[in-house]
Amino acid sequence: MALSGIQIYKLLPQTNCKECGFPTCLAFAMKLAAKQVELSACPYVSEESKALLEESSAPPIRLISLKSDGYEVKAGNEVVMYRHEKTFYNKPGLFVKIKTSSPEADVKTLAQRIQEYRVNYVGIDLEVDGIALEDDTNEGEKMKNAVKAVRSVCKKPLMLFATSAANLEPALTELNGESPLIGCATADSWEKFAELAKQYKASLAVMADNLDTLAELSEKIKGKGVEDIVLVPHGKNLGHELILQTQIRRLALKSNYRPLGYPTLAFCQTHAQMAQAIAKYAGFLVIDTFAEELAYPLLVLRQNIYTDPQKPIQVQPGLYEINNPQPTDPVLVTTNFSITYFSVANEVEGSGLPAYLLVADAEGMSVLTAWAAGKFDAERIAKAVKAVNLDAKVTRKRLVLPGAVAVLSGEVESELPGWEIRVGPREAVDIPKFYKQVLQAN
Amino acid sequence: MPVEVPKEKWPGSVRTITLGALPSEGGTRKRVVTVGGETAMPFMHFEGEIPNPPVVAIEIKDRKPDDWSPLLLETWKDVIDDPAQWAAAAEAAGADLIVLALSLTNRNGEPTSPDEAVASVKAVLRATGLPLIVFGPGQAEADNALLVAVSEATKGERLALGICEDKNYRTIVATAMANDHLVTARTPMDVNLAKQLNILISDMGLPLDRILMDPTTGALGYGIEYGFSVMERLRLAALQGDKMTQLPMIVTPGFEAWKAKESKVGEGVPASWGDWLNRAINWETLTALTLVESGADIVVLRHPESVKRVKAAIEELMAAKSLVS
Ligand code: SF4
User: Fold this and answer.
1) Residue A63 phi/psi, 5° resolution?
2) Interface test with B, best of A213, A242, A289, A427 (most B CBs within 10 A)
3) Is the ipTM of this complex over 0.85?
4) Where are the domains positioned within chain B?
5) How far is A47 from A39, CA to CA, in rounded Å?
6) N or C: which end of chain B has fewer CB within 10 A?
7) Superfamily for domain range B50-320
8) Which of A10, A28, A31 maximizes ligand 1 atoms within 8 Å of its Cβ, making it the mutation to test the pocket?
9) A361-420 residues touching B, CB cutoff 8 A
10) Hey, are the CB atoms on B188 and A242 less than 8 Å from each other?
């Protein structure tokens, strides 16, 4: 738990020697509490105090990072139970499980698909994070061969799971310079796993079906010198998993309970487990199968839940030209909420039809929300038209309003004399049809 | 190593609301549905009561809808032009209750008349023993005309009538009050607007245990995070004791997810979107499940496969009670 300036002061030499650049130890302590200086600026702090101060400044949920050549996936460092309290920071890593019993050709094909999978959502490219290999034959050689097969086509970070730690060692020798995750250590197997994790600088997943055992295991493993720990609370059903995940997050944040101050991992078979893991606290997800139609919504859900609620994702208000419009082409109006903008822009672009897209400043809200909040009205629309000097850009003055704000058409007409105001469809997906049937017809 | 888990003890709780009335209570329902009553955040059985599971409603229309995804038209094709058969099929698909959404126009393209609306509602009530929610077409004048007729013709059934919004709620609330029905109150993803509308409605004299609140959600990819957080904040406020937020929440992930391009369109989309039907169902399922995690008491869905998945999840979420108490 973060210490106050006074608590920190008590741990300093209290000699006011000024070498840190501050007039007194207390002044330095205050700056430390505000995280504006580094402890190392004081050359006289005792080893004992140093350890205490470092321990107290450690984040309540340890940051774990899995790395491979060119890739890094992070989990931990979260600070709230509910995203509206601040934000969730590190999007849970999405890993796809491949069993080592699969034929090598299949392993390669799937690994390649995972390496290449990329989907665009509101202008952002989303990707799957890595592969989790599971030793289901109890043969270390198979694991090693699977790692080689994966690495021949896929560079993303790896997780290696086996019942016996010994089966992972041959594979780990293949992953020089990487930081994979290995597991799952249990009450019976933790010692061997801890040794291996230490030797190969891997993160270690620890599994138990209750918090008492999980805490005990993580402490023992830490005692062996392994600190990059990931907790796997193995619930008996979906509801039990939710409770365990919530309790771990709460103990870490509210009680600063160190034995459970690590990110978690969830093995997911059902859609419910996946949605829950993303919404409720998992640091990593391992899913059993890969399919585009599943990866896409999961990546989007993760993107949504981990959006900073304090910063609505906006686009720059202004005039956007799509498909090279001419002065006779129509002007479509929308708001600067990025999801709204991209829905509309993608439709127009995909249709190949030329149009101007006028993005009004609605403070980053969607059409309906902005309208309800008074941020998207006739006045603002007219202002947007004038701001980009539209009168001079188009010869046929046609302005298309989103169908959801059809009620505004009269007011917009009086605000913009000389303009023909049309009411478009409510949903962006219907724009191409509307364009062809209504705008091109007359 | 025994771990001491801190428990949240909340002063407030969510109201318990029952939809539908049995013959002994003045209605004709074979089953009623009770939601609400929570004294803890969703499924936190170890520190409070979650007495009633969230329920799943299936949305049907009074005639073949004009703007639904072709996938849904295919799914319900045998019953889609007959609300009674559709209701029965929805019940068979596992619905806990039915949402009948009235159309603005009838099969001939003329405005739906109050008589037609009443006929559809009565046919649905005869075809299923489940409680019923009736939504107007979403235009103030039509909503008022149709819902008043429906409300009067079904006095005592404890239907839920919707959708009340801040620009149009008085007529619907008045008729619900006079005919022993409930209302659903929708506000656009904002805690204060939700409270305000609940205050306006209860100020008219409708008891709070006859109001379901619909905080609105966006679909996955279209603003679900706003709906998710507003629901969490409303539920936290309810548990902290804010009376005007202590209402069970209804949301319509089916409506939202199925109007998304991902569900509506099968061709000319990126290959990275994968198989259309599975993608569409995943879209609805993941939207609904995420909202169940944030406190939804009633989720309104459209596809039977989503209903199956969401119901199975709710069962497991409730079953955890025996593991922790
Ligand atoms: S250097 Fe250390 S001992 Fe000297 S004034 Fe600064 S904090 Fe105090």
Assistant:
1) -80, 125
2) A242
3) yes
4) 50-320
5) 12
6) C
7) Dihydropteroate synthase-like (3.20.20.20)
8) A28
9) 366, 368-369, 372
10) no
Distance CA A235, CA B215 (A): 31
Contacts of A300 in chain B (CB under 8 A): 220-221
List of E strands, A350-411: 355-360, 398-401
Q: What is the Cβ-side half-sphere exposure of residue B236, based on CA atoms within 13 angstroms? A: 14
Do residue A119 and residue B270 have CB atoms under 8 angstroms apart? yes
Domains of chain A with bracketed CATH: 5-57 (1.10.15.40), 64-305 (3.20.20.20), 318-439 (3.40.50.11600)
| Token pair belonging to A338 | 């990025």
List, in order, residues 6 or more apart from A69 with CB less than 8 Å away.
Answer: A155, A177, A178
The answer to whether B316 contacts A237, with C-beta atoms less than 8 Å apart, is yes
Residue B211's nearest CA partner among B224, B195, B227 is B195
pLDDT in tens, chain A (442 residues): 567 889 899 999 999 999 999 999 999 999 988 878 888 899 999 999 988 888 777 889 999 999 999 999 999 999 999 999 999 999 999 999 999 999 999 999 999 999 999 999 888 899 999 999 999 999 999 999 999 999 999 999 999 999 999 999 999 999 999 999 999 999 999 999 999 999 999 999 999 999 999 999 999 999 999 999 999 999 999 999 999 999 999 999 999 899 999 999 999 999 999 999 999 999 999 999 999 999 999 999 999 999 998 876 788 899 999 999 999 999 999 999 888 888 898 888 878 899 999 999 998 888 988 898 889 999 999 999 999 999 999 999 999 999 999 999 999 999 999 999 999 998 888 899 899 888 887 6
Residues 304-363 of A with CB under 8 A from B: 304-305, 307, 309, 339, 343, 346-347, 350
